[in-house]
UniProtKB/TrEMBL annotation, chain A:
<dbReference type="Pfam" id="PF20256">
    <property type="entry name" value="MoCoBD_2"/>
</dbReference>
<dbReference type="InterPro" id="IPR036856">
    <property type="entry name" value="Ald_Oxase/Xan_DH_a/b_sf"/>
</dbReference>
<protein>
    <submittedName>
        <fullName>Molybdopterin-dependent oxidoreductase</fullName>
    </submittedName>
</protein>
<dbReference type="InterPro" id="IPR037165">
    <property type="entry name" value="AldOxase/xan_DH_Mopterin-bd_sf"/>
</dbReference>
<feature type="compositionally biased region" description="Polar residues">
    <location>
        <begin position="1"/>
        <end position="14"/>
    </location>
</feature>
<feature type="domain" description="Aldehyde oxidase/xanthine dehydrogenase a/b hammerhead">
    <location>
        <begin position="37"/>
        <end position="144"/>
    </location>
</feature>
<feature type="region of interest" description="Disordered">
    <location>
        <begin position="1"/>
        <end position="30"/>
    </location>
</feature>
<dbReference type="Pfam" id="PF01315">
    <property type="entry name" value="Ald_Xan_dh_C"/>
</dbReference>
<dbReference type="InterPro" id="IPR008274">
    <property type="entry name" value="AldOxase/xan_DH_MoCoBD1"/>
</dbReference>
TrEMBL record, chain B:
<keyword id="KW-0408">Iron</keyword>
<dbReference type="Pfam" id="PF00111">
    <property type="entry name" value="Fer2"/>
</dbReference>
<protein>
    <submittedName>
        <fullName>(2Fe-2S)-binding protein</fullName>
    </submittedName>
</protein>
<dbReference type="Pfam" id="PF01799">
    <property type="entry name" value="Fer2_2"/>
</dbReference>
<dbReference type="InterPro" id="IPR006058">
    <property type="entry name" value="2Fe2S_fd_BS"/>
</dbReference>
<dbReference type="InterPro" id="IPR051452">
    <property type="entry name" value="Diverse_Oxidoreductases"/>
</dbReference>
<dbReference type="InterPro" id="IPR036010">
    <property type="entry name" value="2Fe-2S_ferredoxin-like_sf"/>
</dbReference>
<keyword id="KW-0479">Metal-binding</keyword>
<dbReference type="InterPro" id="IPR002888">
    <property type="entry name" value="2Fe-2S-bd"/>
</dbReference>
Amino acid sequence: MAGTKTTTGAPTEVTQKHNKGGIGESTLRPDGTLKVTGEFAYSSDMWHEDMLWGQTLRSTVAHAEIVSIDTVEALKTPGVYAVLTYDDLPAEMKNYGLEIQDTPVLAHGKVRHHGEPVALVAADHPETARRAAAKIVVEYRELPVITDEASATAPDAVLVHEGRSDEYIEHVPHPNIVHNQPIIRGNAEEAAKKADFIVKGEYTFGMQDQAFLGPESGLAVPSEDGGVDLYVATQWLHSDLEQIAPVLGLPEEKVRMTLSGVGGAFGGREDISMQIHACLLALRTGKPVKIVYNRFESFFGHVHRHPAKLYYEHGATKDGKLTHMKCKIVLDGGAYASASPAVVGNASSLSVGPYAIEDVDIEAIALYSNNPPCGAMRGFGAVQACFAYEAQMDKLADKVGMDRVEFRQLNAMSQGTLLPTGQPVDSPAPVAEILRRVKARPMPPERQWESSEGADVRALPGGLSNTTHGEGVVRGVGYAVGIKNVGFSEGFDDYSTAKVRMEVINGEPVATVHTAMAEVGQGGITVHAQIARTELGVQQVTIHPADTQVGSAGSTSASRQTYVTGGAVKNSCELVREKVLEIGRRKYGSYHPAWATAELLLEGGKVVTDGGEALADLAELLEGESVEVEAEWRHRPTVAFDKKTGQGNGHVQYSFAAHRAVVEVDTELGLVKVIELATAQDVGKALNPLSVVGQIQGGTTQGLGVAVMEEIIVDPKTAKVRNPSFTDYLIPTILDTPTIPVDVLELADPNAPYGLRGMGEAPTLSSTPAVLAAIRNATGLELNRTPVRPEHLTGT
Amino acid sequence: MRVNFTVNGRQQEADDVWEGESLLYVLRERMGLPGSKNACEQGECGSCTVRLDGVPVCSCLVAAGQVQGREVVTVEGLADYAKHREDSHPGGACGSVCGGTSLQEARQWQAKGTDGQTGEGGELSPIQQAFIDAGAVQCGFCTPGLLVAADELLERNDSPSDADIREALSGNLCRCTGYEKILDAVRLAAARQEETV
């Protein structure tokens, strides 16, 4: 073969030169050039001389005992190097998990959901591996499936996990409940007596998928010391490491992890997927092993957003003041716990939304079932609640006879309002203001499809399908607002680490930033370079590849990375600056009194006084010396919620977003066209305005997706997934996505670095209920379920 | 089987290709050109879009044997392809009337561009530069396919309307951006093209 085969190895360092790019500027991505030329090495692009391909065999049934597994024929297949089952696991520890170690590396004795990994194959061609896996014969004895709250909590229900010994089992009302969190504040029963209007509602939220485009993939390379080097796309290297090393029977230092290019994440890479499997195959065969899921397998390879049932009751006086709220939120966590306990904490504590209500009675639970496992996805428990409480607000406003936005504004929380957990919101909470902004925006013109030549069908519901020329098309407008916590809550030690070095290279002062932060597309590396420039006054910043050779950065999730790892980079830069100034004082202190007396800054490659006088060039000052600091950084501590009352200062920070949706609905065919999704969000401080707007638009679109199309459909009788493909699981295309004008507010949080507010998730909350409200407004239908499908609109 | 074809202007030969192998697999795993992405491998997402004799196709749906004797352009060859187009047919398919952008001119945009350039420079096609400048790249996994599709759109239509852009890119999924900045990027590339007429 004459083709040029290039080795795609470890991710390259990215360096930005000649760029002012401090914080607050729309600096461009340092990896942008690599990504537009196709040179950026994503995890599925990894390649190694003599590598093998790994393949997973997954269960074809949802709940069954495994009677036998026959691997003989698979092993005989030419080109196959290894076939592994549960019996081949090398260590005593055979499970992993984010919070509860209940997930088997390979099924032992039982499978608990459709698509659970049962066996592994390594072969010299991916097709060989697939064919060999198909030759493995597994005999199942099927068990009844648990698919909802009723079947999970029935007195004689089969237990999904027998003999639980995790920390939650003491408090849950049934062993098929992973975790429950009640929150009681005030007296909802008493307060309800003051209500002139009471509104009850029952809502259903479908199972959404993160549907990141880059499939789960990575390359494991066995090393001479008996360890393994793993190049993988993940959201949290150190969390993976903690789960991988024990099941490999290796100390953590023998499992070296490097982040390879990540093609999106959205929570779907918080859990382990192929990491352990690739390492097992590499250690068994002594050869590098690459695993790349195809799209079908990807739907089984990661957890999804919890589908939910939500039961709400709100009361209001005739003046429009909310009196009380009662709710029960039932989240289906599926077969394994994943992040379910934390999702329960978020859903319960944020179930009231951004409103001031003193008397509440709340409970959120997550079930164990035989449905696909669910865990983290952008918005994390707050999304489902927002869908329900915003529908309630509209119903209640209508009962009171108030404008829906004014009703929300009247009841909006503000700085100082207590959450149902009793925690005060101690930073700006511009809920009424962001609602005002989306409402004040000019409306998009009516009937944009009409022109002198007739209808432009491209602008109509159904688009080029030519389903309508506007006959049955009606317009609707809807509003919604939401609150999301930032960072890990409930007493979690949510720290991050950054190593920053400053030295002179080719006569120029250069800063290198090394963290284990997963850049999943959010732009963290851009922001880190901006912070280093701002704090250290250098132009050139090198971002070292993320790996486990530096301390943990925590997860790229919960809107926390810019806050926490950004805070760690800032902190480390400040410590580097102190050391640089010490060198300056030592070298030049005797020449100018300002070294001892003035406040000194690093700016434009120089040491300057706060009066602007330049004292030294950094390049000269640092010649022959380098300064390096590795330091951790923590935000304010939080505490666990009380198990019975839910009280406690469990959250760090909040972010707020509001949406106004304008939709047009073809009432004959039940097709929806979203015309515009205007949004306003407070981000505290926009460190990179271009990235901030991109995040808000992307999050808004994911909310739009679950409003009108996205749902993993699980057969209620068999718990099998019906639509694991991009043919059948639909995500919005550019034709489904409307204009998304974004209004960014910057009300600084005095407790956060630069005043910033974690902002990646909030836009995903309110866009779904805004679209639903708009569709209700257009059609007059109640629509208590998302996604809305054509049959819900046409009654068919 | 053996397959002979041209990739990004260079003659290539692949041996021992399985009948079932896709063009995408051959490009990524045999040619060492991983720029075309493997997001769904069923023709739904457009991440693996390449030009086959000038026509945008999902390379995951093209059997490797089908490209025998034909010309393939991937994202890795996009800058060269754009340069060649400008050199030989200024203004692309629309002829000299609607103009076009030479690489020299593209460099001039870089010089007077926004407040910063990324990386070490290098030669980018106008649409590649516009994607960077407009913030249309987040995780970037969809980017190669979108670039190939958008470049082809601008070749045949130098001032596309928003509806034209949406139609042309409707086969390319993006999960990160919400598409607004992708629209911005295509508009930007088209506007820069116009400026230089």
